[in-house]
Amino acid sequence: MTPVTCFAGRRVALFGLGGSGLATAHALVRGGCSVVSWDDGEKGRAAAAADGLVVEDLSIAAWDGFDALILSPGVPLTHPAPHWTVEKAKAAGVEIIGDIELFCRERTAIAPGAPFVAITGTNGKSTTTALIAHLLREAGRDVQLGGNIGTAILSLEPPSADRVHVVECSSFQIDLAPSLAPTVGVLINVTPDHLDRHGTMANYAGIKERLVAAADRAVIGVDDEHCRAIAERRAAAGGALVRVSVETELPTGLVREGTALVRTCDGTRRPAADTAGIGSLRGVHNAQNAAMAIAAVSALGVDEATLRKGLASFPGLAHRMESVGRIGRALVVNDSKATNADATEKALASFPGGLHWIVGGVAKEGGIAPLAPYFDRIERAYLIGKSSDAFAATLDGRVPCERSETLERALEDAAVAAQGSPAAEPVVLLSPACASYDQFPNFEVRGDMFRRLATGRPDFVPLRKD
After folding, report:
1. Is 309 left (phi over 0), alpha (psi -120 to 50) or beta?
2. What is the rounded CA–CA span in Å between residue 363 and residue 272?
3. 440 has pLDDT over 90
4. Which CATH superfamily is domain 109-313 in?
């Protein structure tokens, strides 16, 4: 835990008592702060009370007695309308911040300059964050990994000169962290997302920009127009900057040539690494993640031999293009995290063909029609869940289908059919392009079942780990 000693002797209101809210409340109390907590849900209030925290209805509190409102990032700050606690805090002139901001202030107070890598982006931030942490651990560093990726930032050990914090930040968290100024700020990409919470793309991109604006060194992917403009502003301000592209050549930066990642500098070129044969880093999207991670850890002094070793040993994230093993001659890949067509597109684009695709659940707007350019890579699709009728209609006459209905049946159907594939390496791919809640509580449960079904088969063969 990181006790928030910089708030010692102060009194704050805290709203939102999920996992990160409870961790934040305890970190404040441990640091000597008086915390009054509340949640709109009885479950959160009960959990806080059971943990010995002060739980009082903030709707009837005297707000002029608070020094700050600590707001959960899941609670609306501006759109579609400010939460009632936000309105009360503003009326009382009380600042509104989140747990990332508390960490930043504590870092400034107890270990200014302690190594801190912050990562954001519309897509790829969890993989990039995990890969940065993995590479730093390969280099022998004491690494604390958390933030939006899972472990609340204040549950991590405190910042210090010999410890690196690697923290994934959502736009909601950045919006509540006005003093965010990491050692290395990583911005992967910006595409439309969360507009219900930010109102416009300009607002959303502006919030993402804050993560790199005050960083000692910025690493920015420049393959979308918003990030290109952000990089230009960073350069104009004179800030240290590494541009990354997997689509175009850069005079100076980090670029992709096939599976190779190459450093360029005023016309010179030098190989940095190669992702060929690394199953956890398949596809152009993962080449971008790898390039961002390489640029970030290089800024912290990780040498290239360690980089290459670390990339090769990166296990990837569960449920994200996760190579589970083989069933007979077919590679089995768990991409249960792909809950929309955009995410599934990354998976389909990562294989040249021979795909036995398990797809379906609760469809998102547009269904799988946007995936049509990849249909020729699919030997057969296995439809599960609520979307089966709609997806069968989309695939009719274009991709052979089985209405497997359940994940268990789909895996059995795909495993048998894949053995007769003409492809050199057939792939049984779970990449549903759908939410899971018609058949599973969440994508993790769906992915866990897929992995369990695959590994429990008598013809399952684990992947070699050289």
Report:
1. alpha
2. 40
3. yes
4. Mur-like, catalytic domain (3.40.1190.10)
Q: Can you spell out the DSSP letters for 120-136?
A: E-SSSHHHHHHHHHHHH
Express each pLDDT in 143-183 by its tens digit: 999 999 889 999 999 999 999 999 999 999 999 999 999 99
Catalytic annotation present for 125: yes
- Residue 373 CB neighbour total at 10 angstroms: 10
Task: For 182-249, give the secondary structure using H, E and C.
Answer: CCEEEECCCCCCCHHHHCCHHHHHHHHHHHHHCCCEEEEECCCHHHHHHHHHHHHCCCEEEEEECCCC
Where is average pLDDT lowest: 77-81, 208-212, 426-430? 77-81
Write down the catalytic residue from 26, 88, 125, 346: 125
Residue 239 has a CB neighbour count (10 Å cut-off) of 17
C-beta of residue 282 within 8 angstroms of C-beta of residue 118: no
Q: Which helix (H) or strand (E) holds 388?
A: helix 388-395
> Cβ contacts of residue 154 below 8 Å, gap of 6+?
1, 2, 4, 20, 23, 24, 26, 27, 99, 102, 103
The residue written with tokens 């670029």 in the block is 255
123 is catalytic: no
In the set 26, 123, 148, 334, the catalytic residue is: 148
pLDDT band at 466 (very low <50, low <70, confident <90, very high): low
Q: Choosing from 90, 194, 309, 364, which is the catalytic residue?
A: 194
Does the annotation count 148 as an active-site position? yes
Helix (H, G, I), strand (E, B) or coil at 336: coil
322-461: CATH, from 3.30.70.1350, 3.30.70.100, 3.10.105.10, 3.90.190.20:
3.90.190.20
